Automatic annotation (TrEMBL):
Molecular function (Gene Ontology), one example: transferase activity, transferring alkyl or aryl (other than methyl) groups
Transmembrane regions: 37-58, 102-121, 133-153, 159-176, 204-225, 237-253, 274-293
Subcellular location: Membrane
CDD domains to which the protein is assigned, alphabetical: PT_UbiA_2
Membrane topology annotation: Multi-pass membrane protein
InterPro entries per the UniProt record, alphabetical: Prenyltransferase_related, UbiA_prenyltransferase, UbiA_sf
UniProt keyword annotations, A-Z: Cell membrane, Membrane, Transferase, Transmembrane, Transmembrane helix
A single cellular component GO annotation: membrane
Name assigned to this protein: Prenyltransferase
Taxonomy, superkingdom: Bacteria
Secretion signal, residue range per the UniProt entry: none
Statement: the UniProt record of this protein carries the keyword Metal-binding: no
Organism: Desulfatirhabdium butyrativorans
Length: 297
């Protein structure tokens, strides 16, 4: 039982929230009321989550010696020795194989190609690219874009350039906040250091976060007022949802700059009721704008 619990922890199931991006094409493609599209997207979510867990385990195998010097990562199953390297390797292969088989059975071949591309990207990330400053967060951002592409394939929705741009910008923004957390942890620890941190500084990261947050807000506002988007959604009111985005980003920045809390997106989201309420508010408001007319007609 303890071994199963350790493997479950190594899979980082709580990080599946990141795979929520897979649902965005379904929602913004007006397929949320299509049962077949919902089932395909659910299958895509499960398949991608299995592949993502395989990647997390692979990263932990690769970083186990470095993680043992980290104040909190040393408690991870592989770094702590609760799961051996051999066990973790087999577990990672089983997870990825399960995701591939599920994708092969339930989804088009193009989705399988996205899963394999995601796996290849993350192998390259684990082996070398994560040690290169900027390239490390670019890889993370590409991984989020692949989630969007996977969701579009599953829902049979064409992906707009807007959603790709905003996803890439948001992932870069979140990646920089995580690197800021890593840099602060390194400053407080005499032993732990991430290889790519030599290419970052607090000043550079803070400037990058500021620039990306501003560009992200502008991109979202331009998206909501774009003539093409208003025509697709049959509504000129999507811009009203921008307020949630602005307030959400400000709250996130407040947590990391004012309260100096860890910049992990998942930890902040699960630990901040205000951020959760803002996200729920944005989701409900957006759904009302996109689907309100259909539900009331």
């Amino acid at each position: 039982m303890l071994k199963l619990r350790a493997l479950f922890h190594a899979a980082r199931v709580h990080h599946y929230v990141k795979n929520g991006f897979i649902w965005l094409p379904l929602i913004f493609g007006h397929k949320l009321l299509d049962p077949a599209a919902v089932l395909r997207t659910l299958g895509a979510f499960v398949a991608f989550s299995l592949a993502a867990s395989a990647v997390y385990v692979l990263n932990d195998i690769r970083d186990r010696n470095e993680d043992r010097l980290h104040p909190t990562k040393r408690l991870r199953p592989i770094a702590s020795g609760a799961v051996s390297v051999a066990e973790a390797g087999v577990f990672s292969l089983l997870l990825f194989a399960s995701g591939v088989v599920l994708a092969f059975i339930l989804l088009p071949a193009s989705f399988l190609g996205v899963i394999l591309a995601y796996g290849g990207l993350n192998v390259a990330y684990s082996l070398h690219l994560k040690s290169l400053a900027i390239m490390d967060i670019v890889c993370i951002a590409i991984g989020f874009v692949l989630r969007i592409v996977a969701g579009g394939i599953a829902a049979e929705v064409s992906i707009s350039h807007w959603i790709v741009i905003m996803t890439f910008l948001m992932a870069l923004f979140l990646g920089l906040t995580k690197r800021r957390d890593d840099l602060m942890t390194h400053a407080a620890s005499d032993d732990w250091q991430r290889t790519s941190l030599s290419g970052y500084s607090l000043e550079f990261i803070s400037l990058g976060i500021t620039v990306l947050s501003a560009v992200l807000v502008v991109a979202y506002i331009l998206y909501t007022v774009s003539p093409d988007i208003t025509r697709i959604h049959h509504s000129r009111h999507l811009y009203l949802s921008a307020g949630w985005v602005v307030v959400g980003i400000l709250r996130y920045l407040q947590r990391i700059f004012v309260y100096r809390e860890p910049g992990s997106p998942v930890a902040l989201l699960f630990g901040d009721r205000i951020l959760q309420l803002i996200l729920i508010g944005w989701m409900l408001h957006t759904l009302l704008i996109l689907y309100g007319g259909r539900l009331w007609s």
